[in-house]
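Possible regression after last week's pipeline update?

I re-ran a chain I had predicted before the update to compare outputs. Posting the input and the new output here so someone can diff against the archived version. Not blocking, just want to make sure nothing changed silently.
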Amino acid sequence: MDILTQGLLGAALSQSIASKKETRIATGVGFFAGLIADADIFISSASDPMLNIELHRHFSHSIFFVPIGGLIAALILWPILQRFFNHEPLTFKRLYLFCLMGYSLSGFIDACTSYGTHLLWPLYDERITFHLISIIDPIFTGVLMLAVIMAWRKYRPRLAHIGLLFCGSYLLLGIFQLNRATDMAMALANSRQHAVDQLVVKPSLANLLVWRSTYIANDRIYVDAVRPGFTENKTYTGSSVPLFIPERDATDIPKDSVLYGDILRFEKFSDGFIAMEPGKNNLLGDVRYSMTPIKIATLWGITLDKTKLNEHAHYGFYRATSPDDRKNYIAMILGD
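New output (post-update):
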């Protein structure tokens, strides 16, 4: 999830095992430890832009890395606490325990989003994605923030327990909504008499009401939105685009070139949901993600510059939306 939520979750987990007098220091320690896993965002290469997306949410988000991540956080914080907070004595063992708790669910909560993590690396070197919550969810983050702040102010770790209980319940609601949205997406595909090869259903930005349905059938990618409501279900018909198949659509790019290798890397990263972006020259996009639930417009992609066959492809982000897109998106959430 977003960096703020990661820190707040770490803070709440550390608060949950703290005594009353330890509540405030546990808050800061847990918040810091909750951010450490995402330090992998700084792993990059000027010559290979795709290295960053391949290693982000990788080994640092594995459950097997948790003890090491907690130790790294403790080693960083120990000299700082000794110098500036020695009036609040804290043993290294206790500090490590707070850091361990703060770091413990960093990989799991990211796996609950649609981006996923290498949660079981090195035993299983594939991204695990549960699609239960958006990367940014103001309700989840807001309630968690309130619980953490109140626990900090009142020296009451029990308030952190309440916040964590809410978070767990919210993720259970995500499971419920995901199952309903998946059923609606499959029903829509069946109504079109499509034999679905792959289907991914994920929550749209900042809510659990509108879900983006993306499926592959007959070598095309179909994008729609579904809203499994509590009184009425609604379907918003989107559009489709030809699936990009490297063996068929990149025959003019030598298979031993760097560019072709990057196409295959991007195809793997995108789980096969790749297509040329309509209206954008030579942009190969990951169709699973978009700022607008019913549009093809991708959030990120690589540029296929055939004049630079032996250079790594440019990787870019495309987050622009129009006022009409935002208006329509809000209308979908409201059920209009």
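Follow-up from reviewer: compared with the archived run. The chain has two domains: 3-174, 192-336. Marking as no regression found.
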